[in-house]
Amino acid sequence: MRQQMVLGDFIFGLSRGFAYSTLQRSSDGGWGDLEIIASKPQSRQNGQKLEKLTFAGTAMAAVGMQRLDQLRALQDARAPLPLVDGIGRNWGLWRITGLTENQANVIDDGTAMLINWSLVLEEFINA
């Protein structure tokens, strides 16, 4: 069974009916500026900020709604989770900082036929 990523025990991938279509990774170089009155600011190394990952995708019908509920349960646990990609690379521990869903084409029983979602993870460092 192919998978894109595994967050804790949550599997992203087409085989699970919940794949992401975009992944944005953001990292910071740790540089800041110290303002000087009579000249240009001086560059200072303040230390790197935590990395962030934003996954986004589209899910369909009740399966998508169930998978988002599973992600919310992981978020509610308030614990760092291991992240491993489909080729087996361990990305370390991550925490869920945001989960957004936008339901569309909702039928009469409340099931959304189309769900656009995004998940924001932030690196967990406890050294």
- The ordered H/E elements are EEEEEEHEEE
Proportion in helices = 10-25%
Query: What is the spatial order of strands in the main beta sheet?
Result: 2-1-7-8-9-6-3
* Oligomer status: single chain
Terminal residue distance: 35 Å
Stretches where pLDDT falls below 50 for ≥5 residues? none
Morphology call: elongated
Write structural notes for this entry:
The chain is mainly beta and 127 residues long. It has one domain: Elongation Factor Tu (Ef-tu), domain 3 (Beta Barrel), CATH 2.40.30. It contains one helix and nine strands; from the N terminus they run E-E-E-E-E-E-H-E-E-E. Strands 2-1-7-8-9-6-3 form a seven-stranded antiparallel beta sheet. The longest helix is centred in the middle third of the chain and has 16 residues. The protein is elongated. The model has no long low-confidence stretch (mean pLDDT 89).
Name the features.
single chain; 127 residues; mainly beta; Elongation Factor Tu (Ef-tu), domain 3; seven-stranded antiparallel beta sheet; two-stranded antiparallel sheet; 9 strands
Give a nutshell description of this structure.
The protein has one helix at 61-76; strands at 5-7, 10-12, 22-26, 31-34, 42-45, 52-60, 81-85, 90-106, 112-123.
